[in-house]
Specification:
Helix content: 40-55%
Largest sheet: 5 strands, mixed
Number of helices: 4
Subunit structure: Monomer.
Strand content: 25-35%
Strand order of the largest sheet: 3-2-1-4-5
Number of strands: 5
Protein name: Ribonuclease H
Radius of gyration: 15 Å
Family: Belongs to the RNase H family.
Subcellular location: Cytoplasm
Keywords: Cytoplasm, Endonuclease, Hydrolase, Magnesium, Metal-binding, Nuclease
């Protein structure tokens, strides 16, 4: 890791799953910190929110960067580092010849990754890693804000 490495922690979730969801991301470059969050008041899934968090964080970068991206989702980490190239090669079908779930987000994440040099790391959720805990709180904030905004529109 260099002084120019952007460190990103992401999290996402729903209450209940499926249901309304939120995502959060913490981006650090040297002493600079950016917190991001958002959500969907309608029916979404934990996996969609876990995917949305790194997408939004990577898309927020203003120039290509070296990125260390931490997620507590093995689905996201394994998907982007192991499975996505096979899915793409197979016409976005799984090994069981079923359509890949969340293909729209996987494709968007591929594009965001291609614009940067991203190294992926898994971190155990709720294990005391400060920025992972902050990303979790931001995801909850995003969920709550999405629900509140939907109530105001009624």
């Amino acid at each position: 890791m260099t002084d120019e490495t952007v460190v990103i922690h992401t999290d996402g979730g729903c209450r209940p799953n499926p249901g309304p969801g939120g995502w959060g991301a913490v981006l650090r470059l040297r002493e600079h910190v950016r917190e991001m969050c958002g959500g969907e008041a309608g029916r979404t899934s934990n996996n969609r929110m876990e995917l949305t968090a790194p997408i939004m964080a990577l898309e927020a970068l203003t120039r290509p960067a070296m990125v260390h991206l931490y997620t507590d989702s093995t689905y996201v980490r394994n998907g982007i580092t192991k499975w996505v190239h096979g899915w793409e090669r197979n016409g976005w079908l799984t090994a069981a010849k079923e359509p890949v779930k969340n293909v729209d987000l996987w494709q968007r994440l591929q594009i965001a990754c291609a614009q940067n040099h991203v190294e992926w790391f898994w971190v155990k959720g709720h294990s005391g890693v400060a920025d992972n805990e902050l990303a979790d709180r931001l995801a909850t904030r995003g969920l709550q804000a999405a629900i509140a905004a939907s109530i105001v529109r009624l």
